Amino acid sequence: MSTAQASADVAVIGGGIVGLAAARAVLQREPTLSLVVLEKEERLACHQSGRNSGVVHAGVYYAPGSLKARFCTAGRAALAAYTAERHLPYVECGKVVVALRDAEIPRLEELYRRSCANGVPDVRLIDADELRRIEPTARGVAALHSPRTAITDFPAIARSFADDIRAAGGRIMTAFPVQHIEQRQDTVVLTGRNGDRVVAGRVLICAGLYGDRLAVMAGDAPEPRIVPFRGDYYRLTPEWRTRVRGLIYPVPDPGLPFLGVHITPTVGGELLVGPNAVLAMAREGYRARTVRPDEVLDAIGWPGFLRFARRYWRVGCAEMWRAVSRRRFAADVAAYLPGITARDLIRARAGVRAQAMDAAGRLVDDFIVRRVGKVVAVRNAPSPAATSSIPIGEELARLLLSTDDVPAVESQ
Ligand SMILES: Cc1cc2nc3c(=O)[nH]c(=O)nc-3n(C[C@H](O)[C@H](O)[C@H](O)COP(=O)(O)OP(=O)(O)OC[C@H]3O[C@@H](n4cnc5c(N)ncnc54)[C@H](O)[C@@H]3O)c2cc1C
């Protein structure tokens, strides 16, 4: 068996949408640099970037001034332009965030305030009658309407970024799981399987669900850790497809970074509902029965997770019940779309979120990037990182190529 040996000015670990966007941005900034992307799977973008809702967010939810808010607004505009230029799918189907009862209206108003502060285009608060005109099948007492929220095909965008990287002279090596990182005086040595080795001048880690493990390999602190939360999706039966025009979301729980089970048309013509949020039994555990005992113990044996579990055990139990009961799932969706029953739901593909958690058991809401020697490590890139991939990639490229030693972006 032959071993791969390569050297490059820059190595990017992780062939998801964030790693590919960053690699592309590095070559746009410095076209003469040699660059390699190392991806452990045979294919690119097959974890979070290929298993999400496909929504191009407009910036409704995020705390004004946060990195999420900044990058989301810029990211939506950049993706709209990029997909138009490359003839990739992008449909501005719009979105309603629906309040089911009066008690949710203050939270809806807060979302409206945030939307305005974040520059979400054309966003409005609407009453029940207008909601019916926009989404005739949906029910609620009021809603927030964001007509510029869109849907797209993130794996197709990631593949297009990969084409840009190759066209600019970069190399993409798949089936290269980085297992060891050694920082030397002038270089970083990345070792894969069977003695495969890449020696690079600078390294960027964008490893999603394994981002914390690789950052620790590079010498960074163990916290925040990644705790994997599985999100199950169902497909609605074809007769529902004509009854829904755009995205329908609940008012989210302000204490959680998840947006709640939503109804999502896809650019492929399907109608999905999901995702819920349950602790996954493996970092890439897309089925309830996929269990990796080392990864489960790593999560639940850690004091940070125990603190989190103590605080959220009620929500956790409700989510687990919804994960095993299709009837419960359907009843929750029927609150927004009356008439849906368990018979209308067909199990679809699940995704797992890489959710960073600190030692106090708090879910980290914003993007986190750190610098350790010659390595820049993305420690948290949750939703809407796919929407924001172009400006995040540009910022990561700037940090990687800058010579200042100031710790990189750390905003929570
Ligand atoms: C259920 C769900 C729904 C979501 N919905 C949306 C949405 O609608 N809109 C939105 O904007 N965002 C959404 N997100 C968030 C978005 O998908 C992610 O923030 C984004 O895809 C993160 O990209 P990434 O490149 O950081 O991670 P990933 O796509 O997970 O890529 C990381 C890559 O690193 C590779 N890797 C890991 N370890 C190694 C190693 N040792 N060596 C080499 N390679 C390695 C992995 O194989 C993987 O390909 C959602 C996420 C989930 C899970």
TrEMBL record:
Pfam families: DAO (PF01266)
Cofactor(s) the protein requires to work: FAD
Keywords, sorted A to Z: FAD, Flavoprotein, Oxidoreductase
Every FAD dependent oxidoreductase domain range: 9-399
NCBIfam families: PRK11728.1
Family the entry assigns: Belongs to the L2HGDH family.
Protein name: FAD dependent oxidoreductase
Phylogenetic lineage: Bacteria, Bacillati, Actinomycetota, Actinomycetes, Acidothermales
